[in-house]
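Re: beginner question about structure tokens

> Can someone show what the tokenized structure looks like for a real chain? I only ever see the sequence side.

Sure, here's an example I had lying around. Input first:
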Amino acid sequence: MSSFSATLSGSRLALGQASVPRANNSRRSLSVASVKKGEKAPDFSLVNEAGKKVKLSALKKPTVVYFYPKDDSPACTKEAVAFADSYAAFTKAGAAVVGISSDSPESHKAFKAKYNLPFQLLTDEGGDTRKQYGIKGDFFGALAGRETYVIDKQGVVQMVFNNQFAPEKHITEALETIKDLKGGKGGSSFELPKFELPGNPFSK
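And the corresponding structure tokens:
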């Protein structure tokens, strides 16, 4: 091998070694830390089952964002149907519900129609939104994580719940948090009655 070829090969190797960490670091930076309660929720703009863009910050109401692995799988179907069954309670409390997976809008449309789901399903193609939220996969990354967030209308995370094997628990946890938010916003309408004793000098 000539000195020129050796130099060229060495340059290519050096370039390859230099470029790989930068690419890995840029992807890794999307999932450095999980989003926690009390933190600002990362905003997103994703396509729904009808092909329309949905932006989190544009909803301007408390929102339940639930990430799930795959349309029409047994556990994901159970979770979606449970959210649908409780949807009236969420809307009564003034909250929106959106589901997110990497499935296509066409898959979402079929899944939504099959089970008559009343809420939007968004497509996170490539899983970038999952990475922004720091959602880790289960079974060494073989299965996408199942994680639910309750985000108030100011965009602050009020609840994070992660449980792959109890899909219906996500609904009860989210609904309880939404009801707490509504109660905190409106305050209690109950007041203790005030009693005054005749001639009580401290009543005036």
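Each token stands for a local structural state, so reading them left to right follows the chain. The radius of gyration is 24 Å.
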